Amino acid sequence: MTRRWGLVRLKSSIAASIALVAMMAGVMPAQAASHVGHHHRRSHRRVYRESGPVVKYHAALLEDADTGRILYADNPNLVWPPASMAKMTLLLVANEQIAAGRFSYDTPVRISERAAMTHGSRLGLHAGEVYPLGELMKAALIKSANDAAVAVAEAVGGSVEGAVRMMNAKAQNLGMANTEYQTVDGLPPTPGHDVDRTSALDLATVARALIHTTDLLRWSGMETALFDGGAAVLHNTNHLIGHYEGCDGLKTGFTVEAGFNLTGTAQRGDMRLISVILGAPSNQQRFVQTQKLFDWGFENFAKVQLLKRGEALPVSVQVDQGPTIQPVPETDLTLVLRKSQLADVKLEYSVPPTVSGPVALGAPLGQVIVHNGGHVMTKVDVISPMAVGSEAVARQVPLPAVDGTGRNTIMNDATQEKK
């Protein structure tokens, strides 16, 4: 006998949160139309916009830091000099070396003549001085000190050239297709001739890695900080710190060729955003446009948890000559959506009505398919929360073929009651 399923509500807590956010939502202005989609690094197309939430300079990007969903993009793959934002990858590499136990924040670093002679933004370090590695990393991040960055590179990479190789290997590992480093600090070897290259999309990738694998935001979120117990005071080059709610990073960059740039991050509630502005004409404008991106993102998008790992779904699967199983999601499912579209989210539970036993714990039983406005947004596998049959089942039982007449299909709508 074929079972029929109607429209049912999402769990009340989720439905209530969606309804609340939907009621609070403003309508996204037509002129602020943006590229919105899943974060596919390698296949992402270049996007051009006549207008948007920010003034069009060379490139701009806004994404959710947790899911990687791009909320707005303008020329995200445009190849551009990172300037001092190259230090983000240097610090990511340094932090990995510390996490691997090869160094610590307290490792003493002797300042070389090369580091001491580095020009541009600097602390004024002198050859032969010794400082803790962590203090030099902090200065490179907050003050964008080039002499400190070179000292960090020589410590963790054995040399500047060794650190550059590590940075490029890391960029490749992260899928940063538009990035190549030849320096550790982003300085042009000659005035007006930058040699490092990256893109807004790649800078957002580095920012996500820093946010999720390091605790460097504890430094980048400081408006001022003492260096080495008071030897100097570090003033953050990111002027949004302490002046824009929730902003705690990340890195500025400027050269004559690159213009004024900023990779920023801010968190409000449970949503953290990453922004990139490339090629602003002035120091002030990179902060103004970053703030506009953040304002637009927080006003128009919301984060909603639709599924929780291990929580029983409102469908059942009959095991042949056995009990009934309520599948559970294999992973959490949290999405960042336009507030104006929250009411259109529907969940389709694609599972067979029956399966043959035995069934192993964790055996695949189908999928939850997320629809929004008639489009499939994503899919999540669902599994068995128990072993049925032999307790010693050691392999997953393949799902039987499912066709249009033998599949349970449930469409969940947060705005409708169970029929």
List keywords for this structure.
419 residues, alpha+beta, Beta-lactamase, Peptidoglycan synthesis regulatory factor (PBP3), Domain 2, 2 domains, five-stranded antiparallel beta sheet, 19 strands, 25% helix, 25% strand, elongated, disordered N terminus, disordered C terminus
Describe this structure in words.
This protein has 419 residues and is an alpha+beta fold. It folds into two domains: 219 residues, Beta-lactamase (3-Layer(aba) Sandwich); 106 residues, D-Ala-D-Ala carboxypeptidase, C-terminal domain (Peptidoglycan synthesis regulatory factor (PBP3), Domain 2), CATH 2.60.410. Helix content is 25%, strand content 25%. The chain contains nine helices and 19 strands. The protein has a five-stranded antiparallel β-sheet, sandwiched between helices. It has a five-stranded antiparallel β-sheet with strand order 13-18-17-15-19, with no helix packed on it. The chain has a three-stranded mixed β-sheet with strand order 12-11-16, with no helix packed on it. β17 and β18 form a beta hairpin. α2 packs across α6. The N terminus and C terminus are likely disordered.
Number of helices: 9
Report the structural category: alpha+beta
CATH architecture level-2 label of the largest domain: 3-Layer(aba) Sandwich
Residue windows where pLDDT falls under 50 for at least 5 positions: 1-51, 391-419
Strand order of the largest sheet: 2-1-9-8-7
What Rg do the Cα atoms give? 25 Å
- Would you tell me which CATH topology of the largest domain applies? Beta-lactamase
How many domains? Answer: 2
Strand content: 15-25%
What profile does the largest beta sheet have? 5 strands, antiparallel
Number of strands: 19
Query: How do the helices and strands follow one another from N- to C-terminus?
Result: HEEHEHEHHHHHEEEEEHEEEEEEEEEE
Average pLDDT over all residues: 84
Q: Shape, please?
A: elongated
Name the CATH superfamily classification of the largest domain.
DD-peptidase/beta-lactamase superfamily
